[in-house]
Specification:
2 copies of one chain form a homodimer.
Chain A: H1 6-22, H2 25-33, H3 36-45, E1 51-53, H4 54-60, H5 66-78, E2 82-87, E3 93-98, H6 100-133
Chain B binds a DNA duplex through helix 4 and helix 5.
Chain lengths: ~140, ~140
DNA sequence: CAGAATCCTTCACGATACTG
DNA sequence: CAGTATCGTGAAGGATTCTG
């Protein structure tokens, strides 16, 4: 078939786009990192307590559903950013801890967090100005 | 009414949670920053070209819908991270540029991007190991 | 060119219930 | 305690059409 339907062209454009993105190695990880639960878990685990139990994390990130918590923890474990350790007590004890790789990312994330805290007021002021000017 | 329904308790718990989160100033900004389009726009604008037109951005971030692009640009402008300049040519020309505030965040984001590129292989290896061990 | 407005889909996420 | 499994929904986001 020489001619292509609009749907086919769209499909190909999508593929070409994906291929292009795949050639940009940072993109995949960037998408994964750009997740608020990832940021919060990394922040929690990089804090004062080197390792935390599931229930501790659950409390620390108050508001997270266990589904999202488990899901995010799994993906972080899969990527080698955290370790999951099961201690066969009764009931079972599970602890999570940053790997060296995870720690290195935590450092950077911490910078972002600091930036947010440092410039929060400035941003709020900017928003007020914008809103009044576009009222 | 002295007693509360489960729905009411949930609503209150949600408010309490929101209040708690509001007391953490970094949280709001963190959520906004933890967005892949934000990261990509900041990366694009912080690159070689100091200012970019709407269409340039649209091409550079191939795959982004104009809805998401416009929406994200607006919020960044509102927060004072970028400026929007309209030049009344025919047709109209609109350029976007990082503010000093936006530039400071860009620096940090750039670190994250570099991290992602540097550790991409390691992460992919970790994923393979995880997948084979959990096959 | 640079959007605004609308419709429509999907899927991310929360709520709930169950288990080793 | 630390999850897994299932279901239902709302809201994010894409496609499309229209405009100054």
């Amino acid at each position: 078939m020489a001619t292509k339907t609009a749907a086919q062209k769209r499909a190909q454009a999508k593929e070409a786009y994906d291929a292009f993105m795949a050639s940009c190695p940072s993109r995949q990880l960037l998408d994964r990192i750009s997740d608020k639960w990832v940021a919060l878990i990394l922040a929690a685990l990089g804090g004062e307590s080197p390792s935390m139990r599931y229930s501790e994390l659950s409390r620390r990130l108050a508001g997270v559903s266990q589904k999202m918590l488990t899901q995010t923890l799994r993906s972080l474990e899969r990527d080698g950013l955290i370790t999951r350790t099961v201690t066969p007590t009764v009931p079972v004890t599970v602890t999570y801890e940053l790997t060296d790789l995870g720690l290195s990312l935590h450092q950077l994330m911490y910078g972002i967090k600091e930036w947010a805290e440092a410039h929060m007021d400035e941003v709020l002021t900017n928003r007020d100005n914008y809103d009044t000017q576009h009222a």
